[in-house]
Structure formats: structure tokens, C-alpha cells
Amino acid sequence: MSEQDYLNDISEIKDLMNRSSRFISLSGLSGIFAGIYALVGAAVAYWLVTNSGSEYLILDGKIFRLVLLDLFLIAFFSVITAIFLTTRKARKNGENIWDASSRRLIINFLIPLVAGGAYILIILNQQKYGQTAALMLIFYGLALVNASKYSIGHVRYLGITEIILGLICALFPGYGFWLWVFGFGIMHILYGSIMFVNEKKT
Amino acid sequence: MGIIDNINKLFDHRIRLGIMSILVVNESADFNRLKELLDVTDGNLASHLKALEKESYILVEKQFIGRKPNTRYSATVLGKAKFKKHIEALEKLLKK
What we know:
CATH class of chain B: Mainly Alpha
Oligomer: heterodimer
Strand content of chain A: under 5%
Number of strands of chain A: 0
Number of strands of chain B: 3
Number of domains of chain A: 1
Number of helices of chain A: 7
């Protein structure tokens, strides 16, 4: 075997190791979209609360429910967009959208996320509102870090950023809204763009 | 020669090398998963798996999922060690 053959062997080993253990077709564009939805949703929530006439969001059941609906819609559209764009990219890469790697990625992403989501709903029912934004950021960050083992490296850094923002948010609950906007809006757009630029390079 | 000794004859084939690459980073993989990743025919894959099994580089577990037979493969400690040695030998060869 010649040197070129050995080089081919090594690049094939690397490729198979990556393809068999990581789902690499996550689309950066879907991150950018998720960020935009978060910014729009946050603007809607801000408008709802400032126009509600009451000082506190929590005192008004109707506004509160609308904000929850708003949050749900942000998540819903982000997920739909991510599925659509990722399917498209996977097809281009010749990668299967629903195989052992993508299943493992989703399961490991959902475990911290669902646990956190359930916890937030439970304490909301106990009238503990102050830490909601912090908890969302922290659990989302943990979910990303956990999932990153099965996907591209940037996901891990986004996760760590969200966790740090969440902890800052826990210290300054008064800025919860703005840190939420920064974490879910700006950071998604930033990391999505980095991933998007890297995609174009390769 | 030391370096050449470590180049494993069994890994000199693209598919056998591929099987080991997958199994060292995954706990286990079933037949269809390997087939899909390596893009080979059933018969071809089966014969290479046999060769690796014969040398005890991989472990074969047959089980049933519902009524369908399912065969899972995993790398043995020996297989992982041999694979590592092979990679190190390749690296040394390329560094020269």
C-alpha cells in the first residue's frame, strides 16, 4: 500500500467514526430563525405586558396565559423550522434524518429539557415566578451541552453560554426578560451564523 | 521491522477497517446499521464480519426484537487494542 492509500484509510476511519456517532446535519440557518422567532415573541410579550395596564404580569391571569401561548408558539415554530431545514441539509449530505445518531441526539437533548420544563411548570403553579427566565436558560443550556456529544462542537459552546447567562439571570432576576432575549434571541442568531458560515466553507 | 509488524493484515481491507472504526466509537451496532453506514451488500458485510469474529476482534449477539432476529456487533477488548495499534502504526508510517 502506498502513502496515499494510508491517508485514504485514515480519512475514511475519521468519517465513519463521525457519521456513526454524531448527527452533523444540524442547520445553522435554523438557529438564526429560532433567534428571530425569540426576538419577535419577546417583543409581543413586552407589548402584551406593558399594555396590560397592570404593574405585575402575574396578577393578570389572561395576560399571563397569552405570554405562555407566545412562548409555546416560539418553541413550536423554532422546532418546525429546525426539522424542515435539517431534513433538507441531511438529504444533501446523504445522511438519514431518522437513524441511530439523530435519535440519540434528540433523546439526550430532551432529557434535561423535559425535566427542566416540568420543573418550571410545577413551580409556576406554586406561584414562584421570579426564576423562570433563569431556569429556562439553565436547563436549555444543559440540554444543549448534553446533546452536543452527539452533534457538532458549536452546540456545546452555545449551551455553556446559555448556562452562564442563566446563572447571571438568577442573580439579577429583575433583568430576566432582557437576559432571556439575549440568550434565546441574540445568541441563537450569533451561533447560528457561525455555524452557517462554517457550513458554507466546507 | 517494528512498524510494519503493527500494520494489521486483517485491517488491510476497507470494509473490515470500517466495521472496526464504527464499533470502537459505538457501544454496539446491528447488521443493518453497519450495512447502511458502509454501503455494502449483505453477503459482503457478513463475510467480513465472520473474519473479524473468527479472530475474536468483535462479539456477536443474536437476539429477537419481537419476532425479527436481530444481530448486534460490538468490539472486544482485544479488537479495540489491535485497532489502536493499527492506527498508531499508520500514523508512524505517515510521519516518516
